[in-house]
Here is the input.
Amino acid sequence: MDMMEKFSLQGKVALVTGAAYGIGFAIATALAGAGAKIAFNCRSQSNLDKALADYAEKGIDAKGYIADVTDEDQVADLVAKIEKDLGGIDILVNNAGIIKRIPMLEMSAEDFRQVVDIDLTGPFICAKAVIPGMIKKGHGKIINICSMMSELGRETVSAYAAAKGGLKMLTRNICSEYGGANIQCNGIGPGYIATPQTAPLREKQPDGSRHPFDQFIVSKTPAGRWGTAEDLMGPAVFLASEASDFVNGHILYVDGGILAYIGKQP
Ligand code: NAP
Ligand code: GCO
Here is the structure.
């Protein structure tokens, strides 16, 4: 048997939400490299236009759509358009997400709701929209992009941690409810990755020194560095492919070892 065939995504259709840039863009690029046809969405036309050019520069004929993952009608329309343009969806990567870094006592309920709506309800809406087609196909792969905050808390990220902790359990529940339909739902838990979302945590200080949080994370990560979106490409192909058909309800942490490490004695 050609073992590499197990990792092939030839003939598969993948939807990666929020894949205009950052982690989603890297994951979509990886899935394309394994043979998948790529669809992605975001909310901003300017982000979509730039992303289409960026995918084309990599030789990827991605299809991009404007859709907010929190809007059930827009997601239903997105799935219908993809089915018309590319075919039924085999792989869903719930990547779209935001974070608001606000001390809990200063965070409004509206801010809390917005983060949970995008980071948790959005994946629910998107999974609910694609599962019926996957059941018809007799197979499906759902990958939810979780977080260190699916396991750990820290100051100012209460809404995000609540959402990503919930996303871990939504992952396990989709596994439980639809594993019998040959649908595998797993999570990827990235560590601290250098993307626009974490740029504020890596900003150079006025005196030119590194951001204290940047130094903290590097000291807490056995790999001794921030992750890159490219570090997530191989794990995503694995969880999207037949190679992981008996892996279900699992959160694969891609974190340079940070979750395993108590930290160096000061
Ligand atoms: P990012 O650079 O901020 O990109 C987020 C993407 O999501 C953008 O394309 C954005 O495009 C889209 N988006 C946001 N809200 C949306 C909505 N309601 N509907 C559709 N698209 C939406 O974030 P990232 O760092 O690549 O992170 C991607 C995912 O990984 C997120 O779920 C994040 O929580 C998770 N994660 C990130 C890290 C990290 O260290 N960076 C670590 C662990 C987990 P528009 O604004 O145009 O819609
Ligand atoms: C933060 C960071 C993290 C990362 C990621 C870690 O403010 O702590 O944004 O939450 O985004 O989720 O896995």
Residues 109-137 form the longest helix (29 residues).
